[in-house]
Amino acid sequence: MKKNILGVQANFLTPNGKTNETSVSFVKDGTLSTCIAEERLSRIKLDGNFPHRALKKVLEIEKLSAEDIDTIAVPFLHPTKTNFNYLKSAWSTFFDTGVFLKNQIPDFTWNTVYNKLKAPKFFTYDIDGKEFKLELYDHHACHAAGAYYCSPFEKALVVTLDGGGDGYDGSVYVGQGTKLVNLFKIPHFQSPGTMYSAITSDLGFKRHRHEGKITGLAAYGNNDLKRLGLENLINFDDKKLRFISKPIAKHHLNNDLSAHSNFFHSLLAEFGKEDLAAAAQRILEESVIKLVKAGFREAKKKGYELDKVCLAGGVFANVKANQFISEIDGVKNIFVYPAMGDDGLSGGAALLSYYNQPEVKSKENAIIKNIYKGPEFSNEEIELALKDASIEFEYFEDVEKQIALLLSEGKVVGRFNGKMEYGPRSLGNRSIIGAPFDPKINDWLNKKLKRTEFMPFAPSINAEYAHDYFEKYSKEDIAAEFMTVTYNVKKEKIEKMQAVVHVDGTARPQVVKKDINPSYHKIIEEFYKLTGVPVLINTSFNVHEQPIVCSPKDAIAGFQEGKLDILAIGNYICK
User: Fold this and answer.
1) Which one of 20, 76, 169, 344 is most buried, counting C-beta atoms within 10 A?
2) Are the beta carbons of 423 and 23 closer than 8 angstroms?
3) Where are the beta strands (DSSP E) in 469-523?
4) Which phi and psi (to 5°) does residue 294 adopt?
5) Cβ contact 58:36 at 8 Å
6) pLDDT tens digits, 314-370
7) Which domains does the chain show, CATH number per domain?
């Protein structure tokens, strides 16, 4: 039986080949133990190079050699299967829309067929002289595995959706016990995720990186689709169980999808950026609601009665869409895999490898308690880094109380402590934190950090007070612990936390539990004693276009470049 499994999100097909957001995860006895994205170590945002650094660091943290590893799980299919999936999706697009995606269809000449037949039936990878036969898993099955196995649910609808992987844009599963049963898959080339990415580019931002800016900008616009002529941009076909959109299909005729797409470009002269962002957000929300409802219908046809939803894939980084899913009639709870993007695939692949074993009878070991899965550093290591940087510092035994005092005085603090988070959200261990009272902090702090943001910073709030501040919040709402869903803020509380409430009256909280992160919980509690408000601003500890900090050296550099008031690193405070 496999007990020690490495998941590696990387391109094994070509030497030095790239893919999206490479990472390495280690699963021990069914539990996600250590997970690191390569970008955090290379310091290259969304690094797609082979994760040599992450692989080395995971083995180092876990004190493992190659001999200790049972298998390596990889989130991609054999290229022959992937090409076949692309072929099926391209033809379905043609029959749906009349758009013939010749440039997306593999060239099945006799020479190509011959080369495919010669291709290895499996791939291997060598670690310290030990050769591993790679286990290959479908992209969306890996997304689904991370979402379901890490959830606290014993039975749930599992939905994945992104811009594409292994020839599909999404999938719908039923998770029950240790099994994932596929209901249907969403063919590639007509995804609302592609649409959202395209408008990100059209409005002058970087696709696959700045989609969150569109979510924030949307609240300032008019989302009347008829006014914009976009009411039929994309539809979900309940019979074919897929999205249909001629404009999105045409978008894929352009091989270079990293450039401006001109998808909404013609509308920019007539309508404002805010209105187009609002339209894209509404289309995305309505699309995912239709997809989830179709999933429930198909599950019911198969005899499954479900009231919980698990979500993964880049589309579900959209916290507003996740709120709408949580509010669908009959949905009691949702869970969003905290590493919902492609960096989370390594964890999903390793979990899928473990729970596919017939000997495994329960998924209890996989249920996620926290997402602090990266490196941590001792006070001794931190002190050496501070001395090397010639930074003045002071040691505090009760550093949390001191941090709370500085926050109550209006200081902005870079907080570095404990294990680094896995996924795109900073959850108190690699965070910039501040008091939530002054809404102008968003402008001047973003300027310091060289960011262009339209969404306010997120609030961190201790679990004991969350129901007092957020409408419809329940202590069972695990998605709120990972900052993956928005809530409407209670009107009487908005004045006390203006810096973390969006113009539409929502916020995307991190609900902090004492047993999960005692240090961060204590900072918030001490701040509450001083101010009467159990809420802090929380934004990721990084400057523009750089990954979230990983090491003490990174934190010191971020502190200096961002010109923050305070660096609170381990038990040390630097001013």
Assistant:
1) 344
2) no
3) 487-488, 506-507, 510-512
4) -65, -35
5) yes
6) 999 999 999 999 999 999 999 999 999 999 999 999 999 999 999 999 999 999 999
7) 1-78+123-150+337-368 (3.30.420.40), 79-121+152-335 (3.30.420.40), 379-574 (3.90.870.20)
